[in-house]
Amino acid sequence: MSDAARIDCLALAAEAWANGSGATRTLGRCNDADGETAWRVSIATLNGPSRFSQFPGIDRTFILIDQESVELQLQHGSLHARLGQPVHFSGDLHVWIDMPAGEAHALNVMTRRGRCRARVEVVSHDAIREPAQTHFLVSLGGAWLVRGAQPGDGGITLAPLHALRLDGHAGRLELSPADAGSNTLLASIAIETAETASA
């Protein structure tokens, strides 16, 4: 069983977006042999209408954390993003976000097409998950109790916008809301290589 690395998402250093339109905090990333991004998991800080950077060859997942809904405008249409619901789109596209002024956050997952894949889901109730070789759990709302991440522990509590990263973890994870509120949301992100995903 591997160790679980705890992450305070908003305590991470903020990096400017590639196009300068926003900022992001990277929870984890992996580059391939030629230096290109294989995968990246991050929290973006949004401040009103913004244009997303283009990432050719990248598949993206966007999850709104603290706004009820926003519109993602694409070259040939739009996507309606709701709180806690994953939205998928290609990094090849021109995408911009239409939202009121004011700070908001979103979870971003990027994988290089043909090399990696991310299985991203959001749970709001008790759940059991078998972790991938690299796996992230991110509390999007409310506190969550994670059992099975470390041997002999009584569980790890994740406060909102805190995360766990597990690499090479064996054994299932038991996920339970520690709060009784209606906005308890936890993102489960399984990063798989193309070989693992096709097995």
TrEMBL record:
<dbReference type="InterPro" id="IPR010282">
    <property type="entry name" value="Uncharacterised_HutD/Ves"/>
</dbReference>
<dbReference type="Pfam" id="PF05962">
    <property type="entry name" value="HutD"/>
</dbReference>
<protein>
    <recommendedName>
        <fullName>Various environmental stresses-induced protein Ves</fullName>
    </recommendedName>
</protein>
<dbReference type="InterPro" id="IPR014710">
    <property type="entry name" value="RmlC-like_jellyroll"/>
</dbReference>
<dbReference type="InterPro" id="IPR011051">
    <property type="entry name" value="RmlC_Cupin_sf"/>
</dbReference>
